[in-house]
Amino acid sequence: MGFLGPEEWQAVALSLKVSLWATLASLPLGILVAHALARWRFPGRQVLNGLVHLPLILPPVVTGYLLLIAFGRRGPFGAFLEETFGIVLAFRWTGAALAAAIMAFPLMVRAIRLSIEAVDPKLEQAAATLGASRPWVFLTVTLPLILPGILAGAILAFAKAMGEFGATITFVSNIPGQTQTVPSAIYAFLQVPGGEGAAMRLVMVSIALALGALLLSEWISTRVARRIAGR
Amino acid sequence: MGFLGPEEWQAVALSLKVSLWATLASLPLGILVAHALARWRFPGRQVLNGLVHLPLILPPVVTGYLLLIAFGRRGPFGAFLEETFGIVLAFRWTGAALAAAIMAFPLMVRAIRLSIEAVDPKLEQAAATLGASRPWVFLTVTLPLILPGILAGAILAFAKAMGEFGATITFVSNIPGQTQTVPSAIYAFLQVPGGEGAAMRLVMVSIALALGALLLSEWISTRVARRIAGR
Amino acid sequence: MSLSIAIRHAFAGFSLDVSFQAPPGVTALFGRSGAGKTTVVNAVAGLFRPDAGRVAVNGWEMFDTAAGRWLPPHRRHLGYVFQEGRLFPHLTVRQNLTYGRWFAGGPRDAAEVARIVAMLGIDRLLDRRPAALSGGEKQRVAIGRALLSHPRLLLMDEPLAALDEARKAEILPYLERLRDQTDIPILYVSHSVTEVARLATTVIALESGRVVKQGPAAEVLADPQAVPALGVREAGSVLAGRVLRHDPDGLSEIAVSAGRFFLPQVAAEPGAQVRIRIEAQDVILSRGRPEGLSALNILPATVSEVRRGTGPGVMVQLRAGDDLILARITRRSADLLGIAPGMTCFCIVKSVAIARRNVGLIRGDAV
Amino acid sequence: MSLSIAIRHAFAGFSLDVSFQAPPGVTALFGRSGAGKTTVVNAVAGLFRPDAGRVAVNGWEMFDTAAGRWLPPHRRHLGYVFQEGRLFPHLTVRQNLTYGRWFAGGPRDAAEVARIVAMLGIDRLLDRRPAALSGGEKQRVAIGRALLSHPRLLLMDEPLAALDEARKAEILPYLERLRDQTDIPILYVSHSVTEVARLATTVIALESGRVVKQGPAAEVLADPQAVPALGVREAGSVLAGRVLRHDPDGLSEIAVSAGRFFLPQVAAEPGAQVRIRIEAQDVILSRGRPEGLSALNILPATVSEVRRGTGPGVMVQLRAGDDLILARITRRSADLLGIAPGMTCFCIVKSVAIARRNVGLIRGDAV
Amino acid sequence: GDVTVFAAASLRTALDGIAAGWKAETGHAVTLSYAGSSALARQIEQGAPADIFISSSVDWMDLLETEALLAPGTRRDLLGNTLVLVAHGPDAAPVGIGPALDLPALLGPEGRLAMALVDAVPAGVYGRQALESLGLWERVAPQVAQSDNVRTALALVASGEAPLGIVYGSDAVAEPGVSVIGTFPEDSHAPIVYPVAQTADSDSAAAAEFLAHLGSPAAAASFARQGFIVLE
Ligand SMILES: Nc1ncnc2c1ncn2[C@@H]1O[C@H](COP(=O)(O)OP(=O)(O)OP(=O)(O)O)[C@@H](O)[C@H]1O
Ligand SMILES: Nc1ncnc2c1ncn2[C@@H]1O[C@H](COP(=O)(O)OP(=O)(O)OP(=O)(O)O)[C@@H](O)[C@H]1O
Ligand code: MOO
Ligand SMILES: [Mg+2]
Ligand SMILES: [Mg+2]
Prior knowledge:
The complex is a heteropentamer, with two copies of chain A, two copies of chain C and one copy of chain E. By secondary structure, chain A is mainly α. Helix content of chain A is 79%, strand content 0%. Chain A has one domain (6-229): MetI-like fold. Chain A is built from ten helices and no strands. Chain C is globular, with a radius of gyration of 22 Å. In chain C, α2 (93-104) packs parallel to α4. By secondary structure, chain C is α+β, with helices and mostly antiparallel strands. Chain C folds into two domains: 3-226, Rossmann fold, CATH 3.40.50; 236-361, CATH 2.40.50.100. By secondary structure, chain E is of the alpha/beta class. Chain E has helices at 12-26, 37-45, 58-66, 103-107, 122-133, 137-140, 150-158, 169-172, 205-213, 217-225, and strands spanning 3-8, 30-35, 52-54, 76-80, 83-88, 113-116, 144-147, 164-168, 178-183, 193-198, 229-230. In chain E, the strands form two sheets. Chain E has a six-stranded mixed sheet. In chain E, strands 7-6-8-5-9 form a five-stranded mixed sheet, sandwiched between helices. At the C-D interface, α4, α5, β16, β19 and α9 of C face α4, α5, β16, β19 and α9 of D. The complex binds adenosine-5'-triphosphate (2 copies), molybdate ion (MOO) and magnesium ion (MG) (2 copies). Chains A, B: Pfam families: BPD_transp_1 (PF00528). Chains A, B: Its main location: membrane. Chains A, B: Belongs to the binding-protein-dependent transport system permease family. CysTW subfamily. Chains A, B: It is found in: Cell inner membrane; Cell membrane. Chains A, B: One of its GO terms (molecular function) is molybdate ion transmembrane transporter activity.
């Protein structure tokens, strides 16, 4: 507790929560979109592809601004979600998670997509001849084979979510305990004289967490690969 | 010219230049690092892996600060580069390219690494039995097979470079014609009430460029894949 | 007709136009490398969609361009043994084996798995993953996987090519039983006439994407005109017989229409129907009944057709009882012996020359 | 010794301990699926590093755990034809073929490429990519690729298994010429005794990771004791002969030590040395010289060894001139004829029973 | 009883202290969200749960006021600031700021003048106004390096990357790496003002109290310590 103050620890906890949720909640959609882009041919495929990549191309502030306009309380989606489901994203940690998820989405999708493309379609064909319908082929053959890719995509997304700043602060502001993630806290420290020390301490915590996740994922996927190689 | 003012067009041209150079110049290193991470086992492999990912994890502003400290004229690397090679990065478009390259590097490396991991080592073995040494195996077998992955990684990096803002403005600031990239220009517009219109025009140009590159890369890699599949 | 297939497709540089009907049993697709065998099988499996055609199994239409019908592979209920294995690398051998059963929804008979595992000799391997298997081991697992999926049609693309003789000899009887005891039609691709003769009910010979010969196996195989398509070395005829008894010295006596045949230990009860393939090159002809020879099988026969090619060999078709026998002898011998249609002579065949794999069972009376 | 190999390795559940020396020529690794053949070949290629061992080719040491020596695969100058092709998918057939030549640095003889392409029958395919090839076509390209890399040792892992008989028959003579006209040793894995008998100088029989039989091909193959290891169907002996002349009716006369042999069209000039494999099951024994038979080859011989097993067959070794002949007959015939060591009798072999693939050339007098 | 305050990020040190003091005094917690004024204003437009907004720019507050998003009668000018010229190093020699100041000479041929974005970020806008009114802008403009905020501009000077910079007095106060070598005359630029107001949506009873507390002597002392000028 001496290393960081209570408000900073709060930011760390919130960042972890936001990044975890952003990753986990977007994973199913990420897998679906990656699969669609890798294996299906449908009109609008390239439009979907472009859409997925937008957050990467745009300056984060713009993404945050667009989110604010769309999902703010007064925005069309924000109002709709609040009225119909009672879900409020604006200025809540859920909004931070949404921003992080959207910013990380292109990375997640690309990683998963590449790993799907690496799966030999001949194996999927073999599964089909054995009676597996498309969804079953996916669940029993493709999915297990791309687990390392999914893991890689998820961790990449998690890491990006941990570092996301521009879109988050623009969309959900920087409210301690609600939307103040580690990067926003770092930003706030850097805006005033003498805040660098505290900022660097936060940077170190954030590096430790994200690198820890990264190493864990490497370790797991090495093990999975080794198991498949029969060693 | 009516759509954007001359200063904005200048920013667009500069952004393209910076992103292209950032991508092309970091590509050889990206391939090398990806190959090392995918296929070699050496001590410090995980440290390298972590290092590569740092820009993804850190808030961009922090990366910008660190760049400034390291590559500024007074920084250890900056001074060295200036004295020995006469290369100045601070306040030059080259510095913007460095910032963009570093921010995009983890994405590039991951994409290439995944595609290297998807190459069947049995083919590389076959090449070795035919007399190809490691570098030749890489050049004649691995490299052609991962071309789609390299292309994907390069375009991803290019897109990220086009959108990079935080690290760039912190490191090389915003000098019209020198370091004012499209995201800086957009940011500037968003800072003043009523600037949204001009910002959105720039956003559209930036989307068009990056998506164009993206679609081009998709098209090329589909063609390459089709050629390999013999269709 | 159990199997009705018509497929037309044009690749750049290769066009396929194959159409045939086959009764129940094993339909062998026979032809040289690149003739189009795998392509036909893939079209039947639904893995490849030809420009035009129709595929039906036991009247069940799986594909018909005229009617715009196209069943996806997983709705076709096929067991496909691929030329290159295609095991699931992430599953153990056991999981690979039971993969198709899972979808077949049929009875989950543990004994069935055990039986097939034992037959294929893969008990030791059940907990390994495919990467740790040898080439032949992989192929055996692939066969087991297809068999265990309770298919309505079994597609086998050179399933035994990677296996050694001993293993082939162990697996062939099982395929025979499949053919005889179930209604599952089998479409079987092979380069080996031995396998074809032993298993096939119907033979379809392909050449450059066209059917050049088709018909019941016994007919096609004993047709001197078919010899070029099958390859001279592989010519031979098939005799039907009935097991009479097993002698204590290890020989089995078989009644054939022209007399009695001796074969080493036939694995069937007395009374069982068998088919015996006699390779044309293993038949010696003699004008008189020879004495003092180590060959036990000597059948009287009448020459029905003589086909001389350009080479040193002559293909002679003989009628022995109700059966046709094909003999390949040198032109010189044919001239010396004065072989001509109508002439009677004796066919001499060594008992041991008829490999066990050349003796097949009909209607599962196997022991 | 041209090839000196010792390899020890323990997998979980399978241990390998193989050690043999072989003179120049073709060394055949023979054994059932899972015996360890591919593992040995991989160790020689340097693709697999065994726990311990030594590999040397023509005195050139490539691997020696005792000396801590280990050459990487690309420094070994090998041509490896893999069990599963492994063509480069991004290269055309032509580029695949010339890949190894590029590194070999030897002469770039365009005619050489043309010759090998013609022999393998892949001219039509040169501009395709591997994905558009059939199984057999792929394997032919793989063979060409290995041959064109000017290897010091050729490793072939069941290279012909995916090919049809006609194609096999075309490729075998080329391998023979390689064996006879160059010093390139060949380590050849096969399930087919025909191939082994035709090509092998030395036979190494493996069983469960151990060498169970080794020696010169003619000896191992004519050894009645070796029959169980090779498989009864595959037993046979090899005779040395010299082409005398080609008769106008398409038969070639061959002088063997015991007399004269007639074979269909042997592709060699008069004077050429040949080796003739005679399958034990194709030999008929007769007490007296038979008359009026369509079989042309009748050699006088003396029984030298009789080996009775538990089955209905008996393996008889005979001395015919300087050569050994193996005959497999039924126990019943052996008893009827009173076959016993020392007895003289006649060996009858049909000319056409000796497949062209069973006739090999020695020292490249091929036409 | 709690209050949420949206405040320009540069006020952090002072406001954190004031809020802590107020909480100790009244028991009411203050939640402070720091970001750029533009972001905060847009968020308030979108219904952000802010009770009080302290902006670093008059423009954004004006915008909210015209949109009727402020509680009428609550807006006032809270703080002012000075605009200073800083140089790299702890003890650079002071210069006289006036039309005679030769900035290009001070900068040298390669040197950059670090400022915040001169068209967008208030500190940059004021700086440009000052330079223009002194007739210095034309000559120095090509050498200006603009940052996205004042702190980055300051960091450029502190690290020596840029020899000179124009920042707020409050920013220069605690930065040991720079020295203030001159203060721009108050009349060379529009008044630097940090307006404060309660939002129209605010229903917090404590908000008005905290708003009042911001004008207390304790708060004023705290602001002054950070180099701000307390107005009123
Ligand atoms: N995509 C393609 N484009 C062009 N030609 C093709 C394509 N796929 C297959 N072919 C050709 O079609 C022919 C038939 O191929 P197929 O795989 O059916 O042969 P096969 O009879 O199974 O041969 P094998 O016994 O060697 O496996 C071959 O000549 C092959 O080169
Ligand atoms: N990584 C491994 N772990 C455990 N066992 C292995 C491994 N690799 C191979 N084996 C076993 O080693 C034995 C020899 O395999 P190998 O591939 O050399 O056989 P092979 O003689 O080439 O057979 P085939 O004729 O079927 O190709 C097999 O029983 C195989 O299961
Ligand atoms: O890249 Mo951004 O500028 O803040 O996340
Ligand atoms: Mg095929
Ligand atoms: Mg093998």
